Amino acid sequence: MSKPLNRALLIVGMHRSMTSLAAQWLHHCGLHMGDDLYGAGIGNVKGHYEDKDFINLHDHVLKNNNSHWRNSSSQKFEFDKYSVEKSKMLVRLKSGLYGQWGWKDPRTCLFLDHWNDIVPNARYLIVYRPFTEVVDSFLRREFKVKNRVEYILEMRKYVSKFLNYNRKKEDNLRLWMHYNSSILDFLERVSMERFVVLRNDQLLQNSDLVFKKITESWGFDLDYVPVKSIFDAEITKKAPADLLKGVDNRLVEKASEIEGQLAAYSES
Q1: pTM to 2 decimals?
Q2: pLDDT in tens, 110-145
Q3: 3.40.50.300, 1.10.8.870, 3.40.50.2000, 3.10.20.70: which CATH number matches 7-267?
């Protein structure tokens, strides 16, 4: 009798970076992504494919550190005894039940060192998306109006949003930089054999090669399903060329530098 698998795959990436598509794809390929998944919403009509066990744990840690997933300031997060033991318990539970499994939650970007200690043999599928597209996606989600009546009833709220439009662009750009800088810091300390970095469109174009890496190099036992068979083209709208007009050029230059570093990993 063959030895049961015991493998964990973390899907890592900033919010609005198509990590939900990656998680949905691996779910269809046969990887267990969670027992209680966070459902569909205004920005993810097909579901987020996020395991609520990990979302709740991450939110607990953020709250204990007086932080939030939208906080872009650099800080070292302290895990209380409950959070450490809950992390270990979740890994024991998932490994014992499923043998090969994974999870996706963008907050994972903030806690990569912690999870590396808890799951030292985990593999990482890292997906990044160009910062202009992520900022644009955040804005489109925030300013999306379901119907004219809703807009009229909450007109003051939407007017307030538009008056702070440039500030919201800058806030979302800082958030993109924070999450992706956290990823880059982690990649400097972990073996390259344990991760793959993809730009979001590479996931669409090269899902067969990604699948080969996951199964042949990392040893996951899955059945191939092309990403394009579950892909919704609506989630890849291109950002307007002048999207970041009014944003501090120094921020844009720093974001470009971070994106270039991620691109170097994706091309290696």
Answers
A1: 0.87
A2: 999 999 999 999 999 999 999 999 999 888 877 665
A3: 3.40.50.300
